[in-house]
Amino acid sequence: MAFRTARNLAYFSNYIRNYSTNGPLVNVTVNEKSGFATATLQRPSVNSLNLELLTEISHTLQQLEKNKCRGLILTSASNKVFSAGLDLFELHKPNADKIKQMWSTLQEVWIKLYGSSYPTVAVVNGHAPAGGCMLALSCEYRVMLNNFIIGLNEAQIGFSAPMWLIDGMRNTIGSRQAEFALTAGTLFKTEEALKIGLVDEVAQSKEEAIEKAEKFLNKFAKIPPHARSMTKAALRGANIQALVRNKDEEVRSYVDFVTDSQFQDSLGEFIELNLKQKLSK
Amino acid sequence: MAFRTARNLAYFSNYIRNYSTNGPLVNVTVNEKSGFATATLQRPSVNSLNLELLTEISHTLQQLEKNKCRGLILTSASNKVFSAGLDLFELHKPNADKIKQMWSTLQEVWIKLYGSSYPTVAVVNGHAPAGGCMLALSCEYRVMLNNFIIGLNEAQIGFSAPMWLIDGMRNTIGSRQAEFALTAGTLFKTEEALKIGLVDEVAQSKEEAIEKAEKFLNKFAKIPPHARSMTKAALRGANIQALVRNKDEEVRSYVDFVTDSQFQDSLGEFIELNLKQKLSK
Amino acid sequence: MAFRTARNLAYFSNYIRNYSTNGPLVNVTVNEKSGFATATLQRPSVNSLNLELLTEISHTLQQLEKNKCRGLILTSASNKVFSAGLDLFELHKPNADKIKQMWSTLQEVWIKLYGSSYPTVAVVNGHAPAGGCMLALSCEYRVMLNNFIIGLNEAQIGFSAPMWLIDGMRNTIGSRQAEFALTAGTLFKTEEALKIGLVDEVAQSKEEAIEKAEKFLNKFAKIPPHARSMTKAALRGANIQALVRNKDEEVRSYVDFVTDSQFQDSLGEFIELNLKQKLSK
Questions:
Q1: Which residues in chain B have Cβ-Cβ distances shorter than 8 Å to C230?
Q2: How far apart are CA B20 and CA B3, in angstroms?
């Protein structure tokens, strides 16, 4: 297990440093003592998920997997927004080919993060609507700061969250709450999110949130990593396989939907009425 | 969207009025301001689901779908019984062909109500055993008056709720509570039903219940209807498709079961011992 | 229904008595008044599930099914350990053919107990890690004595609980809690297990636990047994069928896994560090 020796940790740490230089939208650091990586999203201004950021997240996850990461903390460089979700400006009057790549990369991010062999925590240190909530949900644990919002508000924007994300929501907060939340496109305040189980803990500062995240990761210190990853694969594998089987079909269907004028009208209206307002709160 | 213009609302309202004249077992009114329809079951004396009532409910749901209903409140004209469920007197010493049509129409009602594109609320203003509970469960929200009972008591009557109804129960109250409730055929009092999540709110009067139902429906006022219905289809589609695939097979199996002497004996006993007593409470 | 006449009860009771003489690892008694059977595991010292005990449990369940048992209470003759789970000493440096038979018989025990036509209660009167928790989970109700531990700690031992057991855990405590519990291999104290729903009631003595178990079984006194078993089959059938389809494949995969040196190393370490300590608490 490469990660368990100081030499390999150092190697990995260097590797990540080089990699971060090439791709500045995600900053990855590794705590050499614990072996935990922290991946910080830092695409100005609100970590909107465009193709470049999604590709870099996907690449980061692949490197962490390859280097036998012992645990990941996913967080944001902004102190206002964890991630604003899919870059709606790129979905508006889009290039169909770019939409295709975006959606396909979004699927890859879910597959790699939801299905990672290592334990994962989201430190939600800002708003997390739609794709931001998706990133948080794909982790195993969520610590959130006060006075932010989180939720799958896709219905408000004019479309439906994909099946794998709906399943992720259901597995987290249960079928009943998921139906309420998804049909209304609800954005929950931190305390509400805690109450329904959409987040696991609340912290008063990013430092406190990181501590809580590390405490969660440390729970697994004595579990043989291969047994833990087998167990996680057994728990999450069926959902991932369902997406893998349906990947291309789903991409086609989303591209058709997004490029349709009905959605474009809804989206245009949503951007006008809500977007800047929501994100500037 | 037909429903959004006054002209079309009036047309729909007239249409329903004519339709109601032809089939007096369900009374449908439309609030022209909100666009919400209220369907009131009014088959004397306890809204037992016989073939005629089931057919009329199914027809009503189809018309609401066609006319782009903005929301449905399902309730009862009785102040004692929401619906007593399948008409057990028709299941007792039955005509096999009628049973076949009844079950097939019951499936249609579930498919149309559970899968409706518009939001739905049951105002449970009376007892709701078995098929009565099924109607309530197929809505998205349940407001119930005090001092009544609701539940899937099929096991008490001598058979099993069908798979789609079991799934509906599980999605509402969770697997654990559903197993308890279904194996014991439990009928819950209003307050117990609220506690386990089988109903969402309690009201002191039908008027208050209708207000709460409208408040629920109004939550979706700003959600684009096509996005909401896509989301609902994603959430509920798998269960509906499972029934659609198994529809004929299930009809055959229920007809065989119901016409068998073992069930007929159980049913005869149940009718003697419980039925009038339960419903006259 | 054989069980309902005194003559047949006596016959069954005798039969079981003879059977128990042949297989002394499970003691079965039948309360002639209630028709409830009590199966007491009595393999010294901690009811570790070796091939012999698993075979006898499987045989017992088959006889109970054949003789139309009205309800089963599963408990332990030890006042410290309900069951310590799979006999890890037999998994350590194993005979591959014996492992194959053990796993296959474990599957049979699950299929027969989880899918029994009669209602089942575990009186957990001692520690119940791993396979001990599995036996408890496969019942419909769990009454546990204070100051013991229960849970699926397979990840700690170095492997993953099988899919059917994961599903059993999810159906009992929900997806979210199941993921936490399984990835950490958590062993819960009695009060914690009650809180998350892993057990249903706590008792202060075995006598009180048996009373509570009988009270649970008596809830079904007026439910026609065939309707109850149909309902249970509808609720649990899909999970059982999934295992039946995958039975041989799973056996092969577990034998390969268990005989691999990586698992043997983990297991050796676990036995050294934890086993005697945990069980002697």
A1: 159-160
A2: 19
The residue among A238, A225, A199, A189 whose CA lies nearest residue A2 is A225
Query: Cα separations (Å) of A38 from A118, A229, C1, C161?
Result: 13, 19, 64, 30
Nearest to C155 among A172, A173, A228 (CB): A228
Query: DSSP state, A81?
Result: B
Among A119, A174, A230, select the one facing C159 at the smallest CB separation. A230
Residues of B in contact with A182 (CB under 8 A): 231, 234-235
The verdict on whether C153 is a catalytic residue reads yes
Active site residues of A: 86, 131, 153-154
The pTM is what?
Answer: 0.90
Q: Assess contact for B91 and B258: CB atoms under 8 A.
A: yes
Residue C173: list chain B partners with CB under 8 A: 176
Q: What is the mean pLDDT of residues C246-254?
A: 97
**Residues with Cβ within 8 Å of residue B204, at least 6 apart in sequence:** B145, B146
Catalytic pick from C51, C64, C86, C267? C86
Query: How far is the C-alpha of C241 from the C-alpha of C259, rounded, in Å?
Result: 27
Q: Do A266 and B220 touch (CB under 8 A)?
A: no
The pLDDT value recorded for residue C278 is 53
Q: Which residues of C touch B (CB under 8 A)?
A: 119, 140, 170-174, 197, 219-220, 222-224, 226-228, 230-235
What does C204-218 look like in DSSP terms, one character per residue? SSHHHHHHHHHHHHH
Task: Tell me how far the alpha carbon of residue B37 is from its chain's centroid.
Answer: 15
Chain C contact set for B278 (CB, 8 A): none
HSE of A242 in the Cβ direction (CA atoms, 13 Å)?
Answer: 13
ipTM: 0.89
Inform me whether the pLDDT recorded for C275 exceeds 80. Answer: no
Which stretches of chain C sit within 8 Å of chain A by CB?
A: 154-163, 166, 174-176, 178-179, 182-185, 262, 266
B267-277 exposure pattern, b = at least 16 Cβ within 10 A, e = fewer = beebeeebbee
Strands B188-189 and B149-151: antiparallel
Nearest to A160 among B119, B222, B227 (CB): B227
Within 8 A of A178 by CB-CB distance, chain B residues are 235
CA distance C152 to C129: 6
> What's the average model confidence in pLDDT over B131-157?
97
Phi/psi for C192 (5° steps) reads: -65, -40
> Are A176 and B170 within 8 A, CB to CB?
no
Q: Is B131 a catalytic residue?
A: yes
Tokens of C63: 């006889």
Which residue among B154, B168, B182, B198 is the active-site one? Answer: B154
pLDDT digits (tens, 9 = 90+) for B55-70: 999 999 999 999 989 9
Distance between CA atoms of B35 and B118, rounded to whole angstroms?
Answer: 11
User: H-helix or E-strand containing B277?
Assistant: helix B276-280
The pLDDT tens digits of the residues spanning B78-114 come to: 999 999 999 989 999 999 899 999 999 999 999 999 9
Q: List, run by run, the mean pLDDT of 10-residue segments along chain A (281 residues).
A: 30 37 80 95 96 97 95 97 95 92 98 98 98 98 98 94 98 98 98 98 98 98 94 97 97 94 87 65 45
- Our answer to whether residue B197 is catalytic in this structure is no
Q: Would you give the DSSP letter of residue C127? A: B
> In the annotation, is C32 catalytic?
no
Q: Which among B170, B171, B228 has the least Cβ separation from residue A155?
A: B228
Asked, as a colleague might, if the bond just before C266 is cis with ω within 30 of 0, I would say no
